[in-house]
Amino acid sequence: MARQEALFAQENPNIRIPQATRFDLSIGKTKVFQIYFEGFDGRCKEQIVREGHREWTEAVLPSGHAFRVVARGSTSPEVGPFLRDTGDGLRWEGVRLAKPDQNSRNEALASWRGAFTFREEDQDAELSGLRTPQIGALHAIHAHWTFSDEPAMIVMPTGTGKTETMLSTLVSQRCERVLVIVPSLILRDQVFGKFANLGLLKKLGVLSPTAQLPVVGQMRGSIETAEEVDQIFGACNVVVAVINSVAKCSEPALQRLAELCTHLFIDEAHHVPAATWSRVKGLFQHKRVLQFTATPYRNDGKRVDGKVIYAFPLRKAQEQGYFKPIRYLPVVEFLPERSDRAIAEAAIGRLREDLAGNTYDHILMARAHPIPRLESLIDLYNELAPDLNPVIIHSEMNRATRNAAFASLRSRRSRIVLCDNMLGEGFDFPQLKVAALHDLHKSLAITLQFTGRFTRTNEERLGDATMVANAARSDVSTALRDLYAQDADWNKLVQEMADQAIGSKVKKTEFSASFQPHGVDFPAENIQPKMSMVVYKTQCEEWSPDRLTEWLEHKQVFAGPSVSPEHNSAFFVVVNTTEVEWGLARDAVDVHYSLYLLHWDRNQNLLFINSTDNQGFQADLAELVCGDTVERITGQPVFRALYGINRLVLMNLGLKSVVGRSIKFTMLAGSDVLEGITPAQAGTKTKTNLFALGYEDGERATLGCSLKGRLWSNRVAEDISEWAQWCQETGAKLLNEAVTVNEIDRWFVIPTVMTVQPDLIPLDIDWSDELYVNRWGRADVRVGHRTLPFFDVAIDILDQVKNQPLQFVVEIDGDRATYQIDFGADGPVFSHVGGATAFVIIGGQSQALEVFCQKYPPTIYFENEAIMERGLLFTPHREGRVAFDADRITARDWTNINIRKESQGAQRDADSIQADAIRVLRETRDFEIIFDDDDANEIADIVCLKREGKELVIELQHCKFSSADAAGARVKDLYEVCGQAQKSIKWRERIPKMIKRLGEREARRVQDGLPSRFAVGDMTKLLELQNAAHLLRPKMSIAIVQPGLSKAGVSAEQLELLGATENYLRETYQIPLEVICSA
To answer: Can you tell me whether residue 437 is helix, strand or coil?
Structure first.
């Protein structure tokens, strides 16, 4: 007893007890670990314990723990564990067990009974406990599990304590065997550590100090056998794994894992809909599943399934101080090549301000993607801040290099880290306070996660977060546009966006809840149907979806039928098995899951049915739910669905022979399908089905129709309600008896292969649409020794005449390359015929312009609305076309204006047509932007923008000089400007790109030391409109300004040309045309 007496020589001595580990070993690729005692450093009391003739000393801690203390040199007791006093301190003995077993797990589980206290923190009273969102989520979980085992979702903003909520659920519910799935290795290691010591639960006073810590497993790879699963889950209370490790387990191991686990916790649950997540989660259908996330949407925009049982608003998290405020520091740089430097300089400047005077302990993170971008940016950061020792961390680095970079950050040797997505989810580093966003996240989900990493409040010397981004970028998703506006208030917007996303999810959940399940419940919100249907006329006053069970009586039902009485909709899923097509194999069958959707429109008395197997028309199903008087809409009335779609182009056409016996059915495909039918053949065939594309309500549209009654589109609905809305709109067309079959045939534009040059005057030419849709990224054109982005390179028709070779020129700063288009059996052929040579450069690869044009022909606009696209000539029907109304022409006084001078130029010549047009616009209109875009490959000579209610009003004015000193009826004065008007409609689909391009052209103008292009407004105003554009409906108009045209003397030919131009503008995007000329 001598050493014990020395240890307790003074009353309540100060002792230090090290942490004790009971298990730290591996079963296969899984680490199994349990902490017996977390450690102690403080005062204790001496307690003498007598048992019969035996007596020993125990150290009693304030927590109530009592541990036997054995003197140095004394015999070890028969029962452990105990503390040995070595003279230099205390050492644990008898703690470590050879291997874990079920008893260890059960001991921990038993110790949690009655050990948890639902206590909420009260900072005013200095009472520790769980945070408000944690206690709220925990009560919601307990309440949910009293009546339902349906998968549940907990939505808590990053930083409010999701992990502590999981820990509290584990011990308060005494969960027997829990699998915790996380998306990354970093998060796996962090969550494993949290479960091993139960985080802050004991420190907060919500868990008894004497409660044992769980046996925790960390899966570091897949499990191969069911026996190995038995060993791991027989010993562990909790196993933490990344999804890939679980997904790669053998099928027997995975099945056994699902059998043994009682609970599944999924952290960062917005990854759940990915295929691997869904497969794993699907095995836990009858287990209690909790999904924790900061947002109910994946980073690809898809919804996470599961009922939201608790959603703590981000607004409340900010109000209650769980988030540090966010400062947004925008830079405005329209030129891409200068964007990175502007962002880096601003971010480094803010970091240096934060570090000044040792005020804050902050670190800057520069985010870029993909990984090769990091390699180029590290040179920039080393140039700007070598003293801050920038490092790179990304997902493809080896562990040693990555750990070295982390160590440099933690030691503060480095204050700047460049990463792709490595420091996003799961990385807990509160000192990250400055974010340089060189490449933006595309989705709200990942942006909210990312932002949360910079707003932590649980460390000293942490100030507010700062986000640095280029506000001039146009490639920002619609959901995030407001966030990156120049004057954005991130503190307000982040909470609003989070609330909207959660609210949308809750609304979808409510819609799903309106479907009353029968049998296996399949969430309605998970269904994203293709736009397809057959339609039945009905005469019933009420439909009878309850009779669906009769139709399904002899079928293998996977889910449903589920019925929404509120929305008159229903769905079910059946399983069909068929013999394999590749041979005779008695036991091998193909298994298909077929979705059926039904929607009954009471107002139109129509029943719509969608089935993914497309087998039959479900007449018996229709009769069952709506009575035997139903009538399927078939025959020519089906093609009424095409009504309202302008400039229809057939892509597929099915024809049935009505005479003869040798050919019954013909299927033609391609935009030139009608070229495969001679007039003689046309008289013997009737169309059975078709697929066409065109324009409806100012937007692109597709529709397929079958004589037998099936209709379909390329669209995929977001949910059942969107499909039902499409059904109702299409049903109204089908009932419109005013639409005749003959009228339908006249709607189609019939393209022809251009084997000969058309007998039409070419008005204008434009680059292939493939360049504008940015299919390959950046595309440049080189003419001679100068290279520019393709949209800054002039491309023009050489001579607007017919009956001579069709030639065009490409020009940069006076260097011209001339090309000719010849026509033969295979269509147009492009060749270089004079001047400099031109090349198209994509991805660093250069090819001659004529070679590129052969693959991707330019678009050529001809008179009479004819257009050459993809080497085909599209010529609309002329029936019913009207000339432009001469009374609508606006005559203007051109006194003191040189009507033969079109452009004002950089010096803004006041006597030019363009300058006078700008003057009139400034004096008579209230545009926020009036922009001089006159230059090579312009959008228009003048671009005008303004907000008007919920619309973005856009007016494009195309100016053209007169070919003579006096106004007249010269049709050649209109050819080019009409072509420019038709050419410019492409910007109606590309409003963000159009505004971005205006900004780039202004930046280059200023960079060259020339006057601004703005006549009204400036870059700040342009940026405001760019950021607001996604919220506004574009309303575009186009004006032709040609003082060489006389209103009084306008010719019929001129009015025909103007009428054709307006008709093209209206039939595509419903754009009106204004004509401004002389009296």
So the answer is: strand
Same structural domain for residues 402 and 433?
A: yes
Instruction: Extract long-range pairs of 670-673: CB within 8 Å, 24+ residues apart.
Output: 671/751, 671/870, 671/872, 672/751, 672/752, 672/753, 672/872
Asked, for residue 502, whether it belongs to a domain, the answer is: no
Q: What are phi and psi of 422, to 5 degrees?
A: -65, -35
Domain end residue (candidates: 720, 735, 751): 751
- Do 902 and 914 contact (CB within 8 A), yes or no? yes
Do residues 811 and 671 share a domain? no
In a domain, 159, yes or no: yes
Query: pLDDT tens across 684-721, in order?
Result: 455 678 888 887 776 778 899 987 889 999 887 878 88
C-alpha 769/C-alpha 765 separation (Å) is 12
State how far the Cα of 1026 lies from the Cα of 938, in Å rounded to an integer.
Answer: 19
Contact by Cβ (8 Å): 852, 871: no
Q: Is the dihedral of CA 659, 660, 664, 667 positive or negative?
A: negative
Task: State whether 860 and 1005 are in the same domain.
Answer: no
Residue in this structure with the two tokens 């307690």, named with its chain if needed:
47
Query: What interhelical angle do 991-1007 and 1019-1028 show, nearest 10?
Result: 160
**CA neighbours within 13 Å on the CB side: how many for 861?**
25
Full domain range(s) for residue 958: 886-1078
Please tell me whether residue 911 adopts helix, strand or coil conformation: coil
Return d(Cα 395, Cα 469) in angstroms, integer. 23
Amino acid at 522: F
Does residue 721 share a domain with residue 826?
Answer: no
Let me know how many helices (H) and strands (E) the chain has, helices first: 27, 53
Number of structural domains in the chain: 7
Instruction: Indicate if 891 and 869 belong to the same structural domain.
Output: no
Residues 22 and 160 in one domain: no
Tokens of 443: 């989705």
- Phi and psi dihedrals of 186, rounded to 5? -60, -45
Are 300 and 479 contacting, i.e. CB atoms less than 8 angstroms apart? Answer: no
Of the candidates 453, 429, 452, 424, which has an alpha carbon nearest to the alpha carbon of residue 439?
424
Name the token pair of 376: 């180029």
pLDDT tens digits, 956-973: 999 999 999 999 888 889
Token look-up 């420019």 returns: 980
Q: Please, are residues 535 and 711 in contact by the beta-carbon 8 Å criterion?
A: yes
Verify that 295 and 172 share a domain, yes or no. Answer: yes
How many C-beta atoms surround the C-beta of residue 109 within 10 A? 19
Alpha-helical (H) ranges within 540-618 are 548-551
| CB 960 within 8 Å of CB 902 | yes
Q: Answer with the one of 751, 786, 804 that is the final residue of a domain.
A: 751
What are φ and ψ of residue 873, in 5° steps? -100, 120
Task: Specify the 3-state DSSP secondary structure of 990.
Answer: coil
CA-based nearest residue to 4, from 50, 64, 67, 72: 72
Q: Are residues 122 and 229 in the same domain?
A: yes
CA separation, residue 293 to residues 215, 430, 544, 820 (Å) = 25, 19, 40, 60
What angle do the packed helices 162-172 and 185-197 form, to 10 degrees?
Answer: 40
Asked if residue 501 belongs to a domain, the reply is no
| CATH number of the domain to which 1028 belongs | 3.40.91
- Give the whole-angstrom CA distance, residue 76 versus residue 73: 9
Cα first-last separation, the chain = 120
pLDDT band at 378 (very low <50, low <70, confident <90, very high): very high
User: If you compute the radius of gyration of the chain from its CA atoms, what whole number of angstroms results?
Assistant: 37
Handedness of CA 926, 932, 934, 938 (dihedral sign): negative
Task: Give tens-digit pLDDT for 901-932.
Answer: 999 998 899 999 999 999 999 999 999 999 99
pLDDT tens across 1031-1042, in order? 678 899 999 999
- Are 874 and 674 in contact by the 8 Å Cβ rule? The answer is no
Separation of alpha carbons 149 and 309, rounded Å: 12
- Asked if residue 476 belongs to a domain, the reply is yes
Separation CA 875–CA 862 (nearest Å): 9
Q: Is 704 helix (H, G, I), strand (E, B) or coil?
A: strand
